[in-house]
């Protein structure tokens, strides 16, 4: 079971709802997370259960980023609107950077999201189980063991 996050900018919300609906059968067996409104919209149109964080501009991107920083997220589908400036652009950039640092698969458009979900459906993400199995622990002083 993987941890998958959904994020979508306002003009991409219909697109992510349609995507989640199309692949509902794949997402059903995983732990799902989302920023607030995106998660609500997906849950209204599907039977998926999603842990919702705050809205992106109110810190939801950072809440998901905290899980990424701890290597506790396995995949992110973040449908960004490249034609609209976002007031929380620094948070978005930080999330994208953290995904690169931790090697977390990240789709920022439907074409890439579909490739990731088809790989997920085939079982190509078994390597993420190894990441969790051999993840270093934290000692009582907060240092990596």
Automatic annotation (TrEMBL):
Q: Which Pfam families match?
A: MGS
**Catalytic site:** 61
Residues in MGS-like domain copies: 1-145
Q: Which CDD domains match?
A: MGS
**The EC number(s) this enzyme carries:** 4.2.3.3
What's a Gene Ontology MF term here?
A: methylglyoxal synthase activity
**Which annotated residues bind substrate?**
9, 13, 35-38, 55-56, 88
Q: Which NCBIfam families match?
A: MGSA, PRK05234.1
Any idea what job this protein has?
Answer: Catalyzes the formation of methylglyoxal from dihydroxyacetone phosphate.
Please give the family membership noted in the entry. Answer: Belongs to the methylglyoxal synthase family.
Q: What name does UniProt use for this protein? A: Methylglyoxal synthase
Source taxonomy: Bacteria, Bacillati, Bacillota, Bacilli, Bacillales
């Amino acid at each position: 079971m993987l941890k998958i996050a959904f994020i979508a900018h306002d003009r991409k919300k219909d697109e992510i709802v349609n995507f989640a609906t199309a692949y509902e059968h794949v997402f059903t067996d995983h732990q799902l997370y989302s920023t607030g409104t995106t998660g609500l919209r997906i849950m209204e149109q599907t039977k998926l259960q999603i842990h919702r964080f705050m809205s992106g501009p109110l810190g939801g991107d950072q809440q998901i980023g905290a899980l990424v920083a701890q290597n506790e997220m396995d995949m992110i589908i973040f449908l960004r609107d490249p034609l609209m400036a976002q007031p929380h652009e620094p948070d978005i950039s930080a999330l994208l950077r953290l995904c690169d640092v931790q090697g977390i698969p990240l789709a920022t458009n439907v074409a890439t999201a579909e490739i990731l979900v088809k790989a997920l459906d085939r079982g190509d993400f078994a390597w993420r189980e190894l990441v969790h199995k051999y993840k270093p622990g934290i000692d009582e002083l907060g240092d990596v063991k």
